Amino acid sequence: MDVDKLKAILAALEGTDVTRLTWVSGQETLDLRLGHPPPATTAVHAVPMGAPVAAAVHAAAPANPHPAPATGAAPPAPAAKPADDKKTFTVNSPFVGTFYRSASPDSPAFVDAGQVVKKGQVLCIVEAMKLMNEIEAEQPGRLLEVLVQNGSPVEYGEPLFRFEPV
């Protein structure tokens, strides 16, 4: 899609009550979800690995015993399970942004470890360029672990969740 066309669409929606727009033109599909991002928090939240969204999302994590170097570099992302593990699959971030497990800090997580999800079920939100993008399950599965902490930046293709097929 042409960037100028996208800017024109966003400008037309500004100041309206529209919160979601799906536009299909030939092979291109644009799905916009407008809204305010969840407020930034100063506390670090621990997310149990492999638990669905309803797990203790807002429990404070202990202080990091290995702080990141003072160079400002982000700590490395948790390693995903080996690719040869045929009994699991991952859901990866479709773009660069900020990962959120729930719609707001006061809301329960969309999914938690152990929970079975259906195709099309919302798993998380990735905020990119002030747009809240719901990431949906592409296939059913049981959530084994959440690979990213709530509020963390994510890269394109970075694994977010690990599932086993059901």
Average of the residue pLDDT scores: 74
What general outline do the C-alpha atoms trace?
A: globular
Number of strands: 12
The number of helical runs is 1
Helical residues, percent:
under 10%
Radius of gyration: 17 Å
Tell me which oligomeric state these chains represent: single chain
Strand content: 25-35%
Stretches where pLDDT is under 50 for at least 5 consecutive residues are: 37-84
Biggest sheet strand line-up: 5-12-10-7
Q: From the helix content, strand content and strand pairing, which structural class follows?
A: mainly beta
Largest sheet: 4 strands, antiparallel
Q: Can you write the helix and strand succession as a string?
A: HEEEEEEEEEEEE
Distance between the termini: 36 Å
Structure notes:
The structure is a single chain. With 166 residues, the chain is mainly beta. Helix content is 7%, strand content 33%. A four-stranded antiparallel β-sheet has the order 5-12-10-7, with no helix packed on it. A four-stranded antiparallel β-sheet has the order 9-8-6-11, with no helix packed on it. A two-stranded antiparallel ribbon has the order 1-2. Strand 1 and strand 2 form a beta hairpin. It is globular, with a radius of gyration of 17 Å. It starts with a helix and ends with a strand.
